[in-house]
Write a structure and sequence with these properties.
By secondary structure, this protein is α/β, with parallel strands linked by helices. The protein is built from seven helices and 13 strands. The chain has a single domain, classed as Ribonuclease Z/Hydroxyacylglutathione hydrolase-like (Metallo-beta-lactamase, Chain A, 4-Layer Sandwich), CATH 3.60.15.10.
């Protein structure tokens, strides 16, 4: 008998580096990274968990305001890192302008203090860059860079939530979430090197779903060493070594149009059958 799904995943932004909006980029989408996750068990969390705030978070915000997303007590924004393509959509996230909303920000970067995390978004919205400043947006905001977020949100009661820093300029985090025997791993903006990073493999071990960076072809990767990203074949090899069930490629290069990604998806499925390219609006049940 097929088990009921535990996780709902929806992709709101799947593009890397910079958003693109032009013909030929509509099938897979042009918004930068934003991934929505929701726990579907009876003891479901009291929060929406969103990974990164690229331009894709704008549409997510509208769906929350329209009631298309179930009402929860908190919205938790979790960041892999703070490069521009992972935070640039935040000022256009409508729920932050609502006084009855509670929004928490989290990064496990323990060298950063809570106030420093807040400053990232204060600078982003200072008057030279944006007409509304962070202190005036309305929502109740909390900023966490340490483990006290677990008790504040009650996260540990429902989800085994783990993370580790991987190779990326300035560092970035992978996240692993397990509940009711189902595991989802998000591992974007990761560079393996000449061989697959064994620590990344172990972190992804036996995941039901692995969402993995695949910005480049092998040929492109050779001229982009040190840029902090992976190739399609590296993502596949990582998934194979880690014995994951399903693989989704994300962080698409801004020069990879729909035709390219569709063709690459066919090639990748020949190497890893249960794999696909992330698409904006794509929903996955795990």
């Amino acid at each position: 008998m097929t088990k009921k799904p535990v996780w709902q995943i929806k992709f709101y932004g799947v593009r890397g580096s910079t958003p693109v909006c032009q013909p030929g980029f509509q099938q897979f989408g042009g918004d930068t990274t934003c991934i929505y996750t929701d726990l579907l068990t009876n003891d479901r969390s009291k929060m929406i968990v969103v990974f990164d705030a690229g331009t894709g978070i704008r549409i997510l915000g509208k769906e929350i305001m329209e009631g298309k997303i179930p009402e929860t007590e908190f919205i938790l924004l979790v960041f892999t890192h703070f490069h521009w393509d992972h935070i640039q959509g935040f000022p256009f996230f409508d729920p932050v302008y609502c006084k009855d909303r509670k929004i928490a920000f989290f990064t496990p970067l323990h060298t950063m203090k809570d106030a420093e995390l807040k400053q990232i978004f204060e600078r982003q919205m200072q008057k030279e860059y944006f007409p509304v400043q962070l202190e005036n947006i309305g929502a109740d905001l909390k900023f966490f860079t340490a483990e006290e977020y677990r008790s504040y949100l009650g996260f540990e009661k429902t989800v085994d939530f783990n993370y580790r820093m991987h190779n990326h300029p300035g560092g970035a985090f992978s996240y692993r979430m397990e509940a009711s025997g189902r595991c989802v791993v998000i591992c974007t903006d990761v560079e393996h090197g000449k061989t697959i990073d064994p620590e990344v493999v172990e972190f992804c071990r036996d995941a039901d779903l692995l969402i993995h960076d695949a910005q480049y072809t092998d040929e492109e990767l050779e001229s982009h060493r040190g840029w902090g990203h992976s190739s399609f074949s590296q993502a596949i090899e990582c998934a194979k070594q880690a014995n994951v069930n399903q693989l989704i490629f994300t962080h698409h290069d801004p020069d990879h149009d729909d035709d390219f990604l569709a063709e690459m998806e066919i090639k990748c499925r020949q190497e890893f059958k249960n794999s696909s390219m992330a698409r904006e609006g794509m929903e996955v049940l795990v």
